[in-house]
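Action item from last meeting closed. Structure (92 res):
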């Protein structure tokens, strides 16, 4: 199961509607750019080894988001949208 848990840092906040299937946006706070990457991660203290969370990233913020997750020891992999896993789902 993959989810996008960075919404609390998103410019959308809780009052704005979530991005639709044709409007996947970068998870970086303050960025409304179209996402091109799915960054998959896992917090081993609270998730099973095969569980994956996802953040979406535009090309400009991919490295920054990966760097943050690597520093925490959470980063697992980054894939282009359309290659989101066994089902190939693009929704977080």
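Sequence:
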């Amino acid at each position: 199961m993959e989810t996008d848990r960075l919404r609390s840092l998103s410019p959308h906040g809780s009052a704005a509607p979530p991005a639709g299937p044709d409007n996947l946006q970068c998870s970086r706070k303050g960025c409304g750019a179209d996402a091109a990457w799915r960054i998959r991660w896992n917090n081993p203290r609270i998730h099973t080894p095969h569980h994956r969370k996802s953040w979406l990233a535009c090309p400009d913020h991919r490295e920054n988001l990966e760097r943050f997750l690597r520093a925490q020891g959470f980063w697992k992999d980054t894939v282009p949208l359309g290659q989101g896993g066994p089902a190939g789902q693009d929704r977080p």
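Note appended to the action item: The helical segments are 62-72.
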